[in-house]
Amino acid sequence: TGSKPDISRVKSAELYEKSKTYFPGGVNSPVRAFKSVYGTPLFIEKGDGCYIWDADGNQFIDFCGSWGPLILGHNNTKIREKVTEVMQNGMSFGAPTALENELAELIIKNNRFVEKIRFTSSGTEAVMSAIRLARGFTGRDKILKFEGCYHGHTDALLVKAGSGLVTFGETSSAGVPKSFAEETIVIPLNDKVAIEQAFAQFKDQIAAVIIEGIPANNGLIIQDEDYIHFLRKICTENNSLLIFDEVITGFRVGFEGAAAHYGVKPDIVTYGKIIGGGLPVGMYGASAEIMSNISPDGGVYQAGTLSGNPVAMAAGIATLTELNKSGFYKDLNNKTQDFVASIQRFATARNYKFKVFTVGSIFWFAFTDKDKIQSADDIDAGSMEKFKIMHRELLNRGIYLGPSGYEVGFVSAAHTKVELEKAKRAIFEALDLVFRS
Ligand code: PMP
Q: What is the ipTM of this complex?
């Protein structure tokens, strides 16, 4: 089999011409602009189950899932019905509703890691608030983050490593004051010496260490369990808080996320994506003691006009009710693991420099021969050219992956054996083409 002809993008291209006149880059979030893959962005018209359709009527099996929230697939009947029911009574009050209690109860009663929570409207807001809480609680200013972890676009975290092992960060976005970046220390993942050195150098100054439960925004950079336990220990010894940013991993790798996966108790946890079932919800939570620092109980201010929005709560309730059913994660994770294992077997049998890294229902296609990728430095930027070819070949075969080789893919409960078989065949063909060219 050779390359397939490119799908039609006439309507999408027309919409893109127009959107470029309205939005920078034609989009409302940069990765959507297809800058690191072939062609113009696809404008999506509808989704159902594991399928999406673009404006030209092309149909795809979707492995992006709106970047993670859609663990039940698109247009899930239970979510849609619950949201529709709640909407009959109005869409926002800016006053408490019973729905907030209902979603909170689902989360807190089934999660060992949070006693009290606060809902926000995005992951970014959740993380920004968690950082403020850690600073307010500890009375310290510095934050330690890892190269290769993404935590949303809050100023304090749009920071990359400077030169040297342990350095103040440098801003990774224009518009972030240098003085803000200087409060953020950036070190590599999977490096015990670097973190020991950071704690020695900034003794009693580090409010919190923040890490993605399982780093999944710059490839899937799976850490050893031992390293995560080490982080817990060194934070405790230094009276610094450990924040798990579980915006992707929360309710994805299991109901209790990466914290349960590793058996490590973070001090503050952030969630997003899945808890909103496709509507805008974020959340942070901690022990009752730590959360008592949040206004109006405590002095750390945080608020939101649409926080705890009833329609968004309804989507979250419908979603988490499904996820809380016995066997949900076992089925989803087994299905995903079978899928990725056969892709890996295919690539290995043909000696392709290709590895699928995976946890639960998350997977990442890496063009590498390394058995482990545990820090951002382990990723070969040049290999992204291969992803670009793969992405194009897969679109042309009706398979939609997020438009960047650094992004992970997600399998949803709506993907059945039929679609996973079809996807596998397409992936095999695409791999043959990537490695033949
Ligand atoms: N933290 C992590 C780990 C994320 O993956 C993301 C989004 N991809 C965010 C924070 C920011 O969330 P949002 O895009 O909802 O602001």
A: 0.99
